[in-house]
């Protein structure tokens, strides 16, 4: 396995619509997924999409530590996971605002509006279908990573530019600013 270089905002690979993965079980895809999981863990991230490692393919990895989920009973934890050729459906009109970061936009965080509840579907490398209806942080991570497959970064989803800044400063000012959730 290997730690991969992460593309940063400004690189065109982050702005294009990625291509479907023709064979999710192919050795090069399994290797890419293993490397992406290692890269995500190394960077202490909770999600990483293939375009972020210069591969314009419709797949991403994610994880959802049990300590970070919201109180919503449908916000389910997840260990190291992969989703290949996913589909995404936003459920209902409810939108929530919460902090997000991105490994391609290091050092910054912003409050981003997202659907509270979603349905998603995709396959893993063994062709198993993964289909879930989730809420909270789980739903937020999937929407963020899915956006990467369509060339969309969280900065393109922002509506509250007042809640945008360097992670270091935000954590220092956290008590004064309050959480936008
Ligand atoms: Ni990201």
3D structure, described in words:
- The chain has 181 residues and is of the alpha+beta class.
- It has one domain (12-177): Peptide Deformylase (Alpha-Beta Complex).
- The chain contains 3 helices and 6 strands.
- Strands 1, 2, 3, 4, 5 and 6 form a 6-stranded antiparallel β-sheet that branches.
- The longest helix is centred in the N-terminal third of the chain and has 16 residues, at 27-42.
- The structure holds nickel (II) ion.
- Nickel (II) ion is lined by residues 102-104, 144, 148.
List keywords for this structure.
binds nickel (II) ion, 6-stranded antiparallel sheet, Peptide Deformylase, globular, 181 residues
Helix proportion range = 10-25%
The level 1 CATH classification is Alpha Beta
CATH superfamily: Peptide deformylase
Q: Please give the count of helices.
A: 3
| Small-molecule components bound | nickel (II) ion
Spatial shape: globular
Strand content: 25-35%
Please give the number of β-strands.
Answer: 6
Determine the structural class based on helices, strands and strand pairing: alpha+beta
Query: How many domain units?
Result: 1
Rounded mean pLDDT is 94
Low-pLDDT segments: none
Biggest beta sheet summary: 6 strands, antiparallel
CATH topology: Peptide Deformylase
**Series of H and E elements:** HEEEEEHEH
How many angstroms does the end-to-end distance come to?
Answer: 37 Å
Calculate Rg over CA atoms: 16 Å
CATH architecture: Alpha-Beta Complex
């Amino acid at each position: 396995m290997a730690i991969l270089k992460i593309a940063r905002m400004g690189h065109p690979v982050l702005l294009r619509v990625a291509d479907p993965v023709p064979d999710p079980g192919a050795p090069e895809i399994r290797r890419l997924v293993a490397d992406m999981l290692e890269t995500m863990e190394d960077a202490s991230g909770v999600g990483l999409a293939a375009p972020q490692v210069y591969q314009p393919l419709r797949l991403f990895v994610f994880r959802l530590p049990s300590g970070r989920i919201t109180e919503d009973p449908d916000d389910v934890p997840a260990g190291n996971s992969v989703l290949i050729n996913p589909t995404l459906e936003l459920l209902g009109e409810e939108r929530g605002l919460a902090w997000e970061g991105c490994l391609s936009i290091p050092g910054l965080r912003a409050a981003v509006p997202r659907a509270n509840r979603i349905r998603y579907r995709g396959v893993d490398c063994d062709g198993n279908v993964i289909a879930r209806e989730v809420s909270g942080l789980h739903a937020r991570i999937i929407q963020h990573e899915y956006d990467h497959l369509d060339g969309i970064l969280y900065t393109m989803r922002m509506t509250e530019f007042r809640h945008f800044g360097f992670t270091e400063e935000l954590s220092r000012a956290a008590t004064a600013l309050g959480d936008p959730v």
